[in-house]
Amino acid sequence: MQNEALLRGVYLFADLSSEGLSQLAKIAEPRKLPAGYSIFRAGDPATAFYLIKDGSVRVSVHTPEGDPVEVATLGTGSHFGEMALVDGMKRSATAETLEPTAVLCFDYEKMHGLLAKSPATASNLYRAFARFLSNRLRQTTTDMSFARGKNFRHF
Questions:
Q1: Each residue of 86-108: b (16+ CB within 10 Å) or e?
Q2: Looking at the 3D structure of the chain, how many domains does it have?
Q3: CA distances (Å), origin 34, targets 37, 42, 49, 70, 147
């Protein structure tokens, strides 16, 4: 199966068994999205996470004044929207396509069903999410330290 081969190459799924990977591939819903398509907006209820098969997605937030701030530009093999699978919160950012983009959509209800049936798959996937989110937090901490250092020098 083509989706299974794609998933096998994504570090997030590297520790899954062949059976776990096969089950994950079965719930992946392929979608083709046009350029400029809003996948979700900050504050929206979260219902799925995504893996980019081909194309690019911009993730952004708005300042309290309403100015847009680009958080990341993601390309083929990147995933996004996974935080709410873990914490159940609303979307923290906006995601939109920059060009025609093909994604695999992983519905949260289907994911929870799959993970409930397979504790080994759940353990491996949540561990991968934890590593990913931990790395993201480390990068954010570094970025904030750098920004604060720059701001304090101006006073």
A1: eeeeebebbbbbeeebebbbbeb
A2: 1
A3: 6, 20, 18, 20, 35
Expressed as residue numbers, the domain containing 10 is 2-152
The CATH number of the domain where 96 resides is what? 2.60.120.10
What's the pLDDT at 4? Answer: 82
Residue with token string 């949260």: 108
Which helix (H) or strand (E) is 60 found in, with range?
Answer: strand 57-62
Helix ranges (H only) for 88-118 are 108-117
* Residue-level pLDDT at 75: 95
Which amino acid is it at 46? A
For 29, the enclosing helix (H) or strand (E) is strand 29-33
Mean pLDDT of the chain, nearest integer: 89
Which pLDDT score is estimated for 101? 98
Q: Is the pLDDT of residue 26 over 90?
A: yes
User: For residue 155, what are the CA distances in angstroms to 5, 38, 147, 149?
Assistant: 54, 40, 13, 11
The predicted-structure confidence for 34-47, as pLDDT tens digits, reads as follows: 999 999 999 999 99
Distance (Å, whole) CA 155 – CA 19: 58
